[in-house]
Amino acid sequence: MEPIFLQVEQSLSSSIVDISQAFGGSVSDSRLITLDNGQRFFLKIDQSTEPSIGAEADGLRRLRESGSIRTPKIISEDKHYLVLEYISPGSLDRADFKALGTQLARLHKNSHQYWGLDRNNFIGSTLQINDQCRDRTWAQFFLKARLGPQIYWLRKRGLWPADLQSLEDQLVSVVESLLSEQSDLRPSLLHGDLWSGNVLWDKQGSPILIDPAIYWGHREADLSLAILFGGFSDDFFRAYDEEWPREPGFEARVQIYILYHLLNHVNIFGSAYLTQTRKLIKSLISEQGGH
């Protein structure tokens, strides 16, 4: 048995009798473990030089402490592993998506003075710089701590072609304009990486959020991946709006938040997402007139 599993056994004061591969993200090694007492847990292992386990545990803990939405209980943690409650999967119906929409809106009602977070974390395998600053507007934060680092890393990797470099100033103007126009500009607690694969459903149909990339940001940013990749029903969005309606202009602003995730996908997966990214940038500039 690998040393990491011996460490897990010691932390749980039990022997592991079965280990199987589990589905779970592209960053850590995910396993389902069974102990000699019959208990089953979900185990995430990250033995890289810059492990994301601590940031993930912190995010799960803060989401859970909000009292708004459920996350798996943390059973044991170390720098390189995280043992979580095992969620037996259930089936879905319309009411389950309604519950998720309502609970997410309630999560977003948790507010803070400043944008960002008091620590960095990870969005997939990419470092997410949270850079909390009391004097920064939401638009300034999103440009400096979200779009800026992604574009910087793309440029370093040779994945930011000249035609997109030439559009950067116009893109900045669009972001500053669109992200400064709302009346409800206040920091909300965000999951940060909310796509359908990061929502589990237990046998009672209750939603459980996993793999967070939390920060204090504008609530609309948390809806961007649901729109980009789908998998969320209309009932989810209706329930969200019943709890806290989105403001007019959401459809235009959410494209900026989608852009952040597309840039991150180019950084992680390469040029396969570059055509979609280029199309979105040009569409934003064209529709907003570059200012």
Automatic annotation (TrEMBL):
GO terms for molecular function: kinase activity. InterPro entries: Fructo-/Ketosamine-3-kinase, Kinase-like_dom_sf. It comes from the Bacteria. SUPFAM superfamilies: Protein kinase-like (PK-like) (SSF56112). The keyword NAD does not apply. Keywords: Kinase, Transferase. The keyword Transferase applies. Gene3D superfamilies: 3.90.1200.10, Phosphorylase Kinase, domain 1. It holds the Pfam family Fructosamin_kin. Belongs to the fructosamine kinase family. This is Fructosamine-3-kinase. It comes from Pseudobacteriovorax antillogorgiicola.
